[in-house]
């Protein structure tokens, strides 16, 4: 709710619930009349139906279909989970940053946390090629070279699709590069240091603490 409300709030109000949309619509009855909530409710319910389709696709075992360990189907599920999780993370990041809200950092962290929890039991919840590289480099047999390649491809694809969605919606784009008053040395220092910290936390908490790992990573 926090991630979606922050990312979508400046675009649509971020109701995310037909009941909330109806309540907000009713509260403005004397100002603009009633009816704006109807298309909101339609698309919110379509979102719920799409969530059900996604869940069924990623959890065939819940519907009596066996998924063999190491099978191609299992790999497809893992790759799809990484794509979906990374897509929503990048969509939240893009809309939150372009929206200019002060809570964008919290929204991105919330999106990462919930998507790690949602995909962790399926794929490990990497949602980041750097994290995948870190797991591969530990040489513990957690992930194969082939699987890492598929993960990275799906994560990058998820980011690109997210950009294709939020750029026309926001009508703006974020120019990547050094902040005002900084050069590329600052960029390298900041990105290297904090990516190192992120990846180390992921490696540590997924190894020794399975319950709260999503909260720690987010």
Automatic annotation (TrEMBL):
Alphabetical list of PROSITE patterns matching this protein: MIP
Signal peptide interval: none
Lipid bilayer topology: Multi-pass membrane protein
SUPFAM superfamilies xrefs: Aquaporin-like
Listed GO MF terms: water channel activity
Cellular compartments annotated: Cell membrane
Protein name: Aquaporin
Source organism, top-level taxon: Eukaryota
InterPro entries cross-referenced by the UniProt entry: Aquaporin-like, Aquaporin_transptr, MIP, MIP_CS
Stretches that traverse the bilayer: 79-100, 106-136, 148-169, 181-203
UniProt keyword Protein transport present: no
Organism, as annotated: Hemiselmis andersenii
GO cellular component: plasma membrane
Keywords for this protein: Cell membrane, Membrane, Transmembrane, Transmembrane helix, Transport
Family: Belongs to the MIP/aquaporin (TC 1.A.8) family.
